[in-house]
Design a protein that fits this description.
By secondary structure, this protein is α/β, with parallel strands linked by helices. The protein is 46% helix and 15% strand. The chain contains 17 helices and twelve strands.
């Protein structure tokens, strides 16, 4: 039986990890659980899975629920207490959202514990630092993003396998065909209606702006140790083909399924074995034509800015992420327009000072500075 430290248990991915564990209770056990502040669901999960250790990162809320923790379960609260959850279990499943996820990944590396990675910011912000430390620790990193899991599968679970080109697909989001004028009137409610995936609010908005696809290009650069020129993106509106790998002989391997995150979540825990995932088989006769459309860089400013930050290197992708988190929060709160998300990120990138990402502290400083720049820009507009 494989035991798991689940970081980010109450988010969209965390809840689906719990679903996988329920389905295969004979194979998996949750040894520790961490959430940020969703106390009610957190308590339900603790009562159901009875982990050895649980923690709430929000100290104030943690104090208020301490008396509700079941007997026999060790409980603590605060950021340091949350990090201690990584000490438990065979594998760290990092599903925390935002920059905060990076510290959990670094703690797992320090403990030489394999990581199932569902936190984009770990590689977007700290890719150079993280991959260097992973190689030094000699541990496995299993990608959970549907696109990166698809690439990983096509490469036969070998991140160092040779390839000619990585082809990352995108749904295109709800506004692929919108004109720049139409985008100005996009509301948070309409942006949260993703055509094919059900996700958390932040990643749904990032998918609508195509910033998320830029994140995935950055992740692929680090995961597969490759140049940006060998990573191609295109739109596959039905979200049936999750990504593809082209090899030197011209062969292209694709991973296909109906949209679901439970498949890559489960596979990160079971590979190279495959078990029932309660996933409906593809009905090829009813699928009809599977379309491919171009993903033109200059049509999507947030996507373009993500690639620009990757080309600039060093700490710029970290700044991109920090500014993006602030901009998306402001958009969801009705403080800026949809199109001003990109304007906010661009301003922060232009004002960011270059620094070598040699430590977590340097990245933390970059993140804080980018957030401050984004907030200042939003106040002005």
């Amino acid at each position: 039986m494989k035991s798991i430290s689940l970081i980010g248990s109450t988010g969209s991915i965390g809840k689906q990890v719990c679903s996988v564990v329920r389905r295969h209770a004979d194979k998996f056990q949750i040894k520790s659980i961490v959430a940020n502040s969703s106390a009610e669901l957190f308590l339900e999960q603790v009562r159901e899975f009875k982990p050895e250790y649980c923690a709430l990162a929000n100290e104030e809320i943690g104090k208020s629920i301490a008396h509700q923790i079941p007997d026999g379960v060790k409980f603590a609260y605060g950021e340091k207490a949350a990090e201690e959850a990584i000490d438990y279990g065979d594998v760290a499943f990092v599903a925390a959202t935002g920059f905060a996820g990076l510290k959990y990944s670094l703690k797992a590396i320090e403990l030489k514990k394999p990581i199932a990675l569902a936190n984009k910011e770990t590689l977007v912000c700290g890719g150079e630092l993280v991959m260097r430390k992973i190689k030094g620790a000699g541990i496995d990193l299993m990608p959970v993003d549907s696109e990166h899991s698809a690439l990983w599968q096509a490469l036969n679970f070998r991140a160092n396998a040779p390839f000619k080109r990585l082809i990352i697909t995108a749904s295109g989001g709800p506004f692929y065909s919108y004109t720049p004028e139409q985008l100005k009137s996009v509301t948070p409610a309409s942006a949260l209606k993703h055509p094919t995936w059900s996700m958390g609010a932040k990643i749904t908005i990032d998918s609508a702006t195509l910033l998320n696809k830029g994140f995935e290009v950055i992740e692929a650069k680090w995961l597969y140790d490759t140049e940006l020129s060998k990573i191609h993106t295109l739109v596959q509106p039905e979200s049936i083909i999750h990504s593809m790998v082209e090899f030197d002989d011209g062969c292209v391997m694709a991973q296909m399924s109906y949209p679901t995150m439970e498949l890559p979540i489960q596979l990160a825990l079971t590979y190279p074995d495959r078990f029932d995932c309660d996933l409906k088989s593809l009905d090829f006769e009813k699928l009809g034509a599977i379309k491919f459309l171009p993903l033109e860089r200059k049509r999507f400013p947030c996507y373009d800015l993500a690639l620009t930050s990757a080309e600039m290197g060093d700490n710029y992708s970290c700044a991109l992420n920090g500014a993006g988190e602030i901009a998306v929060h402001a958009f969801l709160g009705g403080r800026i327009a949809f199109t001003q998300i990109a304007e906010t990120i661009q301003y922060a990138l232009e004002k960011t000072e270059r620094a070598k990402p040699e430590s977590y502290e340097i990245l933390q400083e970059t993140d804080a500075r980018a957030r401050a720049l984004a907030k200042a820009f939003i106040e002005k507009i």
